Amino acid sequence: MIRDQEIMDQLLGTVSRFVRERLVPNEVRVAEEDRVPDEIIHEMREMGLFGLSLPEEHGGLGLTMEEEVMVAFELGQTSPAFRSIMGTNNGIGGQGIVIDGTEEQKSHWLPKLASGEIIGSFALTEPNAGSDAASLRTSARLDGDDYVLNGTKRFITNAPRADIFTVMARTDPDNKGAGGISAFIVEAATPGLSLGKTDKKMGQQGSHTCDVIFEDCRVPAANIIGGVPGQGFKTAMKVLDRGRLHISAVCVGVAERLIRDSLNYASERVQFGKPIAEFQLVQAMLADSRTEAYAGHCMVIDAARQKDEGRNVSTEAACCKLFASEMVGRVADRAVQIHGGAGYVSDYAVERFYRDVRLFRIYEGTSQIQQLVIARNMLRELN
Ligand code: COS
């Protein structure tokens, strides 16, 4: 749902200009220095990008899902590390509070997340609980008015710079499944919370992940999202449904960028006396990429509209994530192929994007988890 086309066009124009004029020229620097420059983060704050999807009454822009994915199509056209900096506040680091938080939790935390004053992060995955998220072992034992957390979270995006974490922990030791899990808001400065060393990743330099370790970390019971224990797994799943749509839109955006780079290169690179874009085998790669990106775009818009209509889009979000993340992998592969030897060296952005996009098929649920979600929902609907 687009609430006001004119305002939306202005926002998209502003984001698109910011991407072209500020982010794209800084891609190499971010990759080499492995950090997003402070001045760019400052500009993102000024533009309101940290609060795109957070409610207006709490200082955000309150974008609908359709509006959000349209912005994500634009943000996808540059290194994913830029989006990642404010992606957790709008997405997995903030949405738990938006979706299931108490009024008090919302009014306390959301304005700070929306302004970018603080960074929110989402701590679900553990060394032994990834795809099987409900098997997580981090424990939260009730002691007076507090819970005492113990355990380790792994590959936590933005953890090195996070101020608050949404932490999924087991409050009911007798319930080994999803119903024993609660979601806590935990401040990074809480005694007993420490960070592991920053992971060395294949790509997405400038976006950081690390372990988050809890050792007798005391958190007030009032910090359980929604105030009711046992709801944390469902909160996490709802957050991921939304996050998967957003990531799908980013995948479509990256695909568009790769197609543009490939088209430009193919039009300039001359072999056998003419630009390689005039050869049908190169054209086939360009056409396949164009077709697949268009399909991804249509799927994401459709699912976002359904979400705005209040429908359950668990299946559609998984379909989008499955298709769009695999699609951008194929598009990146063709982009390298079209660039030939040049695509294998770091002078051209496609080499970096080829590594960056690999993560899309893994995080916020692997392709195999999306297949599992889709098939399970299909079978449920049959009964
Ligand atoms: N929205 C709301 N509730 C949901 C939900 C959703 N999308 N998906 C599941 N639930 C609920 C179920 O309805 C069920 O509730 P009841 O017990 O009241 O019936 C509960 O959550 C448990 O669901 P389920 O039995 O389906 O859980 P499973 O352990 O079988 O696992 C999968 C479900 C595999 C889908 C889940 O573990 C998953 O998504 N794993 C991937 C995790 C992931 O994406 N990790 C990436 C890192 S985080 S960036």
What portion of the residues fall into strands of 2 or more residues? 5-15%
The CATH superfamily of the largest domain turns out to be Butyryl-CoA Dehydrogenase, subunit A, domain 3
**Overall form:** globular
Mean pLDDT: 97
Helix content: 40-55%
**Class by SSE composition:** alpha+beta
Molecular structure report:
- β8 (270-271) and β9 form a beta hairpin.
- Helix content is 50%, strand content 14%.
- It is globular.
- The chain folds into 3 domains: 5-115, Butyryl-Coa Dehydrogenase, subunit A, domain 1 (Orthogonal Bundle), CATH 1.10.540.10; 120-229, Butyryl-CoA Dehydrogenase, subunit A, domain 2 (Beta Barrel), CATH 2.40.110.10; 234-382, Butyryl-CoA Dehydrogenase, subunit A, domain 3 (Up-down Bundle), CATH 1.20.140.
- The chain has helices at 5-23, 27-33, 38-47, 65-75, 80-90, 95-100, 103-115, 232-268, 280-308, 314-339, 349-356, 367-382; strands spanning 120-123, 139-143, 146-157, 164-170, 181-187, 193-195, 209-220, 270-271, 274-275.
- The longest helix is centred in the middle third of the chain and has 37 residues, at 232-268.
- Residues 92, 122, 124-125, 131-134, 178-179, 233-234, 237-238, 240-241, 314, 363-365, 369, 372-373 line the site of coenzyme a persulfide.
- Coenzyme a persulfide binds next to α8 and α12.
